[in-house]
Amino acid sequence: MTIWTTITEILQAVGDSVSEALSRIVGAPREKRDPQKSVAFTIGVIALSAKMAKADGLVSEAEIAAFREIFVIHPEETQNVARVFNLAKQEVTGFDSYARKIARLFSDQKDVLEDLVDGLFHIARADGAVGEQELAFLEEVSQIFGLEDRFGCIRSRNLRGTDSDPYSILGIDCAASDGDLKAHYRKLVKENHPDRHIAAGMPEEAVAIATTRLARITEAWGQVERERGI
User: Fold this and answer.
1) At residue 34, what are phi and psi to the nearest 5 degrees?
2) What percent of the chain has pLDDT over 90?
3) What pLDDT, on a 0 to 100 scale, did the predictor assign at position 57?
4) How far apart (Å, rounded) are the C-alpha atoms in residues 76 and 53?
5) DSSP per position, 16-79
6) Phi and psi for 224 in degrees, rounded to 5?
7) 23: exposed, middle or buried (C-beta count within 10 Å: 0-12, 13-18, 19+)?
8) Closest to 171 in 3D by CA, of 132, 216, 209
9) Distance between first and last Cα of the chain
10) Which phi and psi (to 5°) does residue 71 adopt?
11) In the chain, which ranges are continuous DSSP H helix?
12) 24-39, pLDDT tens digit by residue?
């Protein structure tokens, strides 16, 4: 049974409500809840992507293509994915309700919540720019996730430009010593290593997002190394 089949069965059991599907997973006993975290992660990305796509009033082909870049979707599963996306888009439930349920489920896995925000950024910038409404959406989701202190770093590594200086991406002051920088970088590598996601049973999409994030962190560290000659 694929993860998409599991999601479809859960939706059918709760009357085709994305919100109720998340509530069922969040409210389940731990022994039943934990094995379904990968399902909840996938539903969360789809649901919040659908709400974000409405934030600027448009759902572009580029955004849909970016969504497919995050998720490994076999042709026979396309209909199931589209169904979840459309249900979330049409549901009157606000995005903040989805975000709070996901935040509760992954309250002890902030790195997974950060993966989810990175995935949403990937979709938002697919059409060449992240609009003000989309950025406000992403910042509010980050706040609900308890990532307000990390949002600057998340934004910098996802939006390349004048604000994407390596220190901002690494989340450390440019006045930090070489020793502190090295220690901080080692800590980031440990915290963001994809193996942690694999061990936690996250879906391959989460692992792929974590891998991309680690590459961006490593790239920023390389720039700092060159500039400082360390």
Assistant:
1) -60, -45
2) 20
3) 60
4) 24
5) S-HHHHHHHHHHS-HHHHGGGHHHHHHHHHHHHHHHHHTTTT---HHHHHHHHHHS---GGGHH
6) -65, -45
7) middle
8) 216
9) 50
10) -100, 135
11) 3-13, 18-27, 30-33, 37-53, 61-70, 78-90, 95-105, 110-124, 132-144, 151-158, 166-170, 178-192, 194-199, 204-228
12) 998 888 888 877 888 8
pLDDT, average across residues 145-154: 92
Q: How many CB atoms lie within 10 A of CB 119?
A: 25
Question: What phi, psi does 81 have (nearest 5°)?
Answer: -65, -45
State the Cα–Cα distance between residues 161 and 154, nearest whole angstrom.
13
Instruction: Tell me the two tokens of residue 176.
Output: 């930090």
**Furthest-apart CA pair in the chain: how many Å?**
60
Nearest-5° Cα angle at 132, 126 to 133: 90
Task: Return all residues near 147 (Cβ < 8 A) that are at least 6 apart.
Answer: 110, 113, 114, 117, 154
Residue 173 is predicted with a pLDDT of 86
Residue 1: pLDDT band (50, 70, 90) is low
Tell me 99's DSSP state. Answer: H
As a whole number of angstroms, the distance between CA 88 and CA 48 comes to 8
Sign of CA dihedral 41, 211, 227, 172: positive
pLDDT in tens, 54-111: 766 655 666 667 777 777 677 777 777 778 878 888 888 889 999 999 999 989 888 8
pLDDT confidence band for 203 (50 / 70 / 90):
low
Distance CA 79, CA 87 (A): 12
